[in-house]
Amino acid sequence: MLIIDSHSHIYLEQFRDDLHDVIVRAKEVGVEQILLPNIDHITIPSLLSVCHEYQGVCFPMMGLHPTSVDDNYLDKLNIVKRELQEHKEQFIAIGEIGIDLYWSSEFKEEQIKVLREQLSWAISYDLPVVIHCRDAFNEVFSVLDEFSKYNIKGVFHSFTGTKEELYKSLSYKNFYIGINGIVTFKNSSLSQLIPLIPVDRLLLETDSPYLSPTPKRGLRNESSFLVYTLAELARIYGVSQEELAEITIKNTKRLFGKLK
Questions:
Q1: By percentage, how much of the chain surpasses pLDDT 90?
Q2: CA distance 238 to 94
Q3: At 83, is the pLDDT very low, low, confident or very high (cuts 50, 70, 90)?
Q4: Angle formed by the axes of helices 73-86 and 108-125, to 10°?
C-alpha cells in the first residue's frame, strides 16, 4: 500500500537531527512522496536542500504563508517571486498561501493583496495552489471568486470549516480538500463532514510537525503518522485502507501534475 503526504514541513528545525530516520520511517509505512509547501523567504534554503537530498521523494512548492505577512511583506514577496521565476521548473505548486485571521487581523488587507498576487502567479505558471485558511473563509472565497474565469486548481489544506464552507469550497470544481490528523481528535466535529466530501476530491496530509493524529498526539508529527489519518478516513467512508490509499494517490497526482 502506497500513500502520499500532500502537505508537510519536514525541512523545519524540528527535523534537523533525524530527518533521514523520518524519511526511512515514512517509506516503511508506504509513504512514497512528501510534498513540501514553503513558508517564507527564510525557509527557502532548507526547503530546497531537503528536496535536493531526497529527490524523487520530496517535492517543493513556493509561496509566502499568510502568517508571514507583516510590514515587510513586499520584500518577502519579492524574494519568493524571484525564486519562483528563476527555478520555476522545480516547483509543483504555489503554496502555502492564503489568509489567516486566527492569530491577528492586523495585516488583513496585506494578506488579501498577497493572496491575489500569488494567485496570479498560479495562472502565469499554470500551477495549482495550496490554500491556508483560518477564520477567513469569506475573505478567501471573495478573492478566489475574483479569479473565477481562470479555473484555478488547488487544495484547501487542513480543512476545518463548517458544512456551508465545505460546500462552497467544493463548488470550485478544480479544488480538493486536505484532511490531516484533526479528523482523529476526539473533540473534533470534522468527522461528521467527511462523508460530504466526494472521495475523488480528498487529499491526505500531515502538516507535520504540527497536528499529530491520535494516538500520537503530543508528539512531533511526521509523515509516517499519515497511516492513522488514512485508517480513520477509511473507517468513515466504509472502504478499505488500500482502496482509499489508491484513490487519494490518484487525486494527488491529478492535482499536482508534475508528480511522477
A1: 98
A2: 33
A3: very high
A4: 10
Q: Is 211 in contact with 185 (CB distance < 8 Å)? A: no
* CB distance 67 to 110 below 8 Å: no
- The pTM of this model reads 0.97
Nearest to 93 by CA among 130, 49, 132, 142: 130
Query: For residues 133 and 156, what is the distance between their CA atoms, to the nearest angstrom?
Result: 7
For helices 73-86 and 44-53, angle between their N-to-C axes, nearest 10 degrees: 30
Measured CA to CA, the distance from residue 56 to residue 10 in angstroms comes to 15
Q: What is the pLDDT of residues 3-32, one digit of tens each?
A: 999 999 999 999 999 999 999 999 999 999
- Element containing residue 143 per DSSP (H, E): helix 137-146
Q: What cell numbers appear for 32 in the block?
A: 512514497
Beta bridge partners of 8: 208
All residues at 6 or more sequence positions from 70 whose CB lies less than 8 Å from its CB, including other chains: 107, 110
Q: Which three cell numbers mark 36?
A: 513540501
Which residues are bridge partners to 208 per DSSP?
8
CB 127 within 8 A of CB 89: no
Q: Which residue has the cell 482509499?
A: 244
Length of the chain: 260
Contacts from 236-243 at CB under 8 Å and sequence distance 24+?
Answer: 236/183, 236/191, 236/194, 236/195, 237/194, 237/195, 237/199, 239/199, 241/1, 242/1
Q: If you average pLDDT over residues 59-66, what whole number do you get? A: 98
Question: Which pLDDT score is estimated for 107?
Answer: 97
pLDDT band at 260 (very low <50, low <70, confident <90, very high): confident
| CB 67 within 8 Å of CB 100 | yes
Residues contacting 102, CB < 8 A, separation 6+? 134, 135, 136
